[in-house]
Amino acid sequence: MVKFLASSFTVLLLTIAAVKAQINPALYPKVNEVPPVNSPEVIAWLKEIDLTGAPVIELHKGAPPACPNPPIANECYWTCDGCAADDITACAAPNTWGLTFDDGPSTFTPTLLDYLKTNKLSASFFVIGSNAIQYPDTLKREVAEGHHLASHTWSHHALTTLTNEQIVAEMKWTEKAVMEATGLRLKYMRPPYGDINNRVRFVLKKLGYIPVDWTGDAFDTNDWRIPTMTEAQVIATFSKSLDTYVAGDKAKGFYCLEHDVSSLTVNVALKLLPLGIARKINFASVAGCESDAQPYQAGSTAPMPTLPSGTTPGQPTSSKGATPSAGAGGSGNGTASGPTIIDPKNKSGASSVAVSGVFAAAAAAAAAALILA
Questions:
Q1: Is 103 a residue of the active site?
Q2: Fewer CB atoms inside 10 Å of the end CB: C or N, the chain?
Q3: What is the pLDDT of residues 195-208, one digit of tens each?
C-alpha cells in the first residue's frame, strides 16, 4: 500500500511537472526584448504573408514615441491624431463597460480572477508574450472561467518604432505562446501605448488581427500612474467619467484601460468595478461587446470556447446581483515578482519565473512517500 501511494505521488508529481513545463522559455526569445527577425521561426512566418504594399511611413522614435511635428500625411496615427481608422474604440453593446486588462499575466492576476468569478464578470486579457510563457496556467484558468484572451505583443515596444518584420515577430511569438498554453489562436490585439498607424494596421491585418483601442482619455483609469497619482485620485477621476457616461444616452458602451500587472493596479480595479455595478452598467469582454461567437482565429487546436453561463453571444454579462468585494490580496508593494511591469507610459520592470507552491507541495509529498517505501 505504501509503495502504491509512493507510486501514485510520483505519477502526480510527474503530471504536475509536465503541466508546469508545457512552455519551455528556452525555446522563445528573450523576455522584454524585440525578437530577432532572422530566427527560423520568424523567417517561416514572414513567408506566410505578403507585406508588399505596406504604407511607407518613417519609423517613430521614443518609448513611447513623441508626436511627429508636423503630423505625417495619411498616417492616421491614433496616439497623436486621434485617427482610429477601423480600429475598435467603443463597445458595441449599449450601457456596457467593455472590461479589458493589459500587461499580464502576473502573480496578481489570480486575485483579480477570484473577484471576477465571484461577481460573474467576463473580461478580455491583453497578454504580453514575455509574461505568458511564465504563467501558462493563468492563461488556462482565464479561458476556463469564461474570459477572452487577446494580444499585447511580445515585449510591449511601441509598434510604430518597429519595422514590419519586427511587428510580425512580436505578434507571432505571443500567438505561439498562447497557442501552446491554451490551443487558441489570438484574433484581437491592443497596441502598447495605443501606438498604431496605418502601416502597423496593414501588418496586423495581414496576420489576421483586429486592433482594440480604448474609448479615449476619459476611460483611461490612470491605474498605471499609481503611486504618483494616489489611489483616491484615480477613483475620484474615474467616478466623474462614469457619471458623465451614465448621464448620456449610453447608446454604445466603452472600453477602459486597466492593468493586471501589479498589486496596485489590481487593488484599484477591485474598487473601480463596484462603481460601475452601483451605476447599473453592464460588463462584457471584447467578444461579448462585439457579438463575436468566434473570438479566436481559425487554426486553433482547442475547441472554440463558449460564453460563460448566463450569457449569450452578443449580450454583455449583467452586473445584476454583483456585489462589491473587499480589497485584493498580494504583497501591496506594487511590484509583481514574476512578470514584466509595463504601463501605457513606459513603466518597465524585471522578470523572473515563480515556482508554484502546488508543485513544491506535490514534490514534498512524493519525496516523503518514497522515503516511507
A1: no
A2: N
A3: 999 999 999 999 99
